[in-house]
Write a structure and sequence with these properties.
The structure is a homodimer of 221-residue chains. In chain A, strands 1, 2, 3, 4, 5, 6 and 7 form a 7-stranded mixed sheet that branches. The first copy, chain A, has a 3-stranded antiparallel sheet with strand order 8-10-9. Chain A has 5 helices and 10 strands. Helix content of chain A is 26%, strand content 32%. The first copy, chain A, folds into 2 domains: 134 residues, Nucleoside Triphosphate Pyrophosphohydrolase (Alpha-Beta Complex), CATH 3.90.79.10; 71 residues, Winged helix-like DNA-binding domain superfamily/Winged helix DNA-binding domain (Arc Repressor Mutant, subunit A). With 221 residues, chain A is of the alpha+beta class. The first copy, chain A, is elongated and about 60 Å long.
Chain lengths: 221, 221
């Protein structure tokens, strides 16, 4: 029987005005006490039904966040990544709209650049890099970016989210055609949002069917 | 400190004349002694450098196979999937051309339908289903199927592999254009293979650069 350390870690990603961010918390315990790191913790055998459950519990206990989107990323393992010994970290990434992060700020969460994160303990930088790569890649052909747009949004707002994630400007007509093709948005009855000199824009939300499962585009954006 | 059981399991996939197959071995120990299951085993903290290393060791020790392609699939976990207690299985899938499986047959490996596997212990059917879904999905836009085609192959042979994985016939001209676009094949100098009434076909192998990393197609097949 082996005595491997089993943990979960979560790369919590959000979009701020100046780009993609990852949430960091100062560690309460050794190793790396007081150092900013990804939220993480041991699996609790008594109460967790699986690793996903552990990731959700860690985010709620440590940051007060129930993320609208949480996906298993990859498992990181080896004898050297944790000074306590041979360890396995089942890593997840969560997408959270910026508005939802206010309460996390009160709990001490800080945001760092996800594309150029600072030094982090363990292999947390590798976890962040894998999360960013997965998010940017899936943004090209799925509903994934909607989870960063907030509960409701206009099409120009959603297009800006896609553009930030894909790192390129998108053609407005073709973007709208692709969104229609994915058939993933519900108009919010009677809600229009004024947008400067433009005429007011319809407000949408993600259809309930695509809150837990992604909608895919056959040919990409 | 937790006492979680940490294992690796491998869904070894190959293509036979009648479709996609998964390799099964009779278990040597309890639980489920003598039952056919995916090759798997504990992580060895003394000797394994990471979970991938453990997966490779398990395949070599139990089946005598060093797979040309091995990728982490997902981690399965929970209190009920293993009768010994709360467990984590870091699952991998391996792609092996049929020719390489001969020695595994001598070690007792049997092949079952990967699309409709028999009853299996633990959550091994869920692991097989996830591996098949990953393979079929990635086949649409990457070099992944080449690892099932053998060390060398003609373009008609490779097209047949892609067609089997994608479950649809492909247009020959468009298939060849996409293969050229991916720029992943080297012709084997001076090797032509006769193909019935057709003129002999050039023999190819995967470029060295794409043996460990996939080559991707921007728009899919």
């Amino acid at each position: 029987m082996n005595q491997i350390i089993c943990t979960v870690d979560v790369a919590l990603l959000t979009l701020a005005e100046d780009g993609l961010k990852v949430g960091l918390l100062r560690r309460e315990r050794e190793p790396f006490k007081s150092v900013a790191a990804l939220p993480g913790g041991y699996i609790h055998q008594e109460s967790d039904n699986d690793a996903r459950d552990a990731a959700r519990r860690v985010l709620m206990d440590k940051a007060g966040i129930d993320p609208p989107y949480l996906e298993q990323l990859a498992t990181f393992s080896g004898p050297a990544r944790d000074p306590r010994g041979w360890s396995v970290s089942i890593a997840y990434y969560a997408l959270v709209p910026a508005q939802l992060l206010e309460q996390a700020g009160e709990r001490g969460m800080t945001l760092a650049s996800a594309d150029h994160p600072p030094q982090l303990p363990f292999d947390h930088r590798a976890i962040v890099a894998a999360a960013v790569a997965r998010l940017r890649s899936k943004s090209q052909y799925s509903s994934l970016p909607c989870h960063l747009a907030g509960e409701t949004f206009t099409l120009p707002q959603l297009q800006k989210v896609y553009e930030t994630l894909m790192n390129e400007p998108l053609n407005k007509v073709s973007f709208r055609r692709k969104m229609t093709e994915m058939d993933m948005l519900d108009p919010v009855e009677g809600r229009l949002e004024s947008a400067g000199a433009h005429r007011p824009a319809q407000v949408y939300r993600l259809k309930a069917a695509f809150r837990d499962e992604l909608q895919l585009l056959e040919r990409g954006l």
